[in-house]
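INFO  loader      accepted 1 record
INFO  loader      residues=317
INFO  predictor   begin
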Amino acid sequence: MSEHILEVKNLKKHFDVGGGRLLKAVDGINFAIKRGETFGLVGESGCGKSTAGRTIIRLYEATSGEVLFNGENIYKLKGDSLKKFNRSMQMVFQDPYASLNPRMTIENIIGEGIDIHGLASGKERRERIYKLLRDVGLNEEHAGRFPHEFSGGQRQRIGIARALAIEPQFIIADEPISALDVSVQAQVVNLFKKLQRERGLTYLFIAHDLAMVKHISDRIGVMYLGKMMEVTTSEMLYAKPLHPYTESLLSAIPIPDPEVERQRERIILEGEVPSPLNPPSGCPFRTRCPKAMKQCAESMPEMKEVEPGHFTACHLY
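INFO  predictor   done
INFO  writer      dumping tokens
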């Protein structure tokens, strides 16, 4: 069995917006995730990271490319093999207010997947739901309530319990803390880490909060305008970023030491993020890059392994 549970190969997702125009939300990204690790996917709003997550789990059908899960191309799965894949991979959504059906009790929200896959019924089903509630820091009395009776953090825990109900191997967490209060965010991230230890889960953790991504991720991919700019371990990304875009993102993270904060150099990017309907030629970051060269307008740089395990797509290397 391969050490990689998931391999994404030249994945593209383009949306037809009419008039012969394509919105290239995800435009040829490549990365792989090892079993049991957390891969963080970061970038500013609109870079395509959530679309990538939804395309990987087949909420969107890919325009082209491959996603191999346990060595199988998921876009070729049908019938029973597709149902088996759906049980292996689950998603925790960004908005805990919108992702839970307001007309269903918590017991039925969590139990829906159990029913679809025929995993348990009657007393066994109820006991399983109670255990899931306890595992995510809630209790049995919550099972008969409705989503509107819970806070945002509690709803996100219910969303996590729903994802865990069918015992998946892999979870895509799409900005699972961005809609929560800062005081609750750390609790939810620590819950993800605890569940990973206990259940041997693998995560794709999508976020734009770089400090939080460093805390939870083993490796990180940085996206900009549908393209992957850099992939490496979280330690290496923060200690020695290679791509100018990654450098600018990291320079925006506040440091809680006023002396260090005063002395360090901030990289302020000029201009606006280009439209994915009309991206620049060559490297998509070149219009805002302080190190842009003539070559950057002519061709998109290939992703290269500059140091062991450290990949970047930049003509500087």
